[in-house]
Amino acid sequence: MNINLSIDGFKKGNVYLQKIKDSLLINIDSVYVENNQSIILKYEINSPEIFYINLDISKKDNRIEFFGEKGDILIKTKLKKFNSEFKISGSFNDSIYRKYLEVIKKFNYKRLDLIKISFQKTQNKEMDSVKLIETEIKDLNKRQYLYSLNYAVTNGNTHVAPFIALNEFSYGSKVLLDTIKNSLTVEVLKSKYGEMLNKTIEAK
Fold first, then answer.
1. CB atoms within 10 A of CB 50
2. What is the CATH number of domain 2-90?
């Protein structure tokens, strides 16, 4: 995997490529940049998985998360909005992952809005309204749950599917996880996340 990274406004400093290994975030490549030189990061990859681009390894809330895969990947971003307005090309799995995240983001925004309204209603002692909002939140959570399940099952030819299963349903029933597993292609089943999903199911 070759990553060509462009950071508008970034003059000088370290850039890190990171991944999760044994539940720990580790640096797998880094480069010191000065004078607006091109930023190239590399890693020998066996199957698509989640990686991170970070400028400050002491912070976890200002990094770019993406699905890396074999080949050339181009990432463009700006220093001021480093992890909020980046664009990625060259990774099929990441494009599928982005579509999923966009919908999840809408669910999260809606949930936050309902929580804010609930808080206001509680302060005004409008308890009947609070109960209605709590029901709305439960319905929203259920819709998000079903959306994630459906997205994983219908994208079984991508490595995003077992990743969603591991992130969202690892504590779910064996039947549910089997449903996702049965939708996966042979290639995905043999990948890092496919094998992790299989181990999770076997441990049930």
1. 20
2. 2.60.40
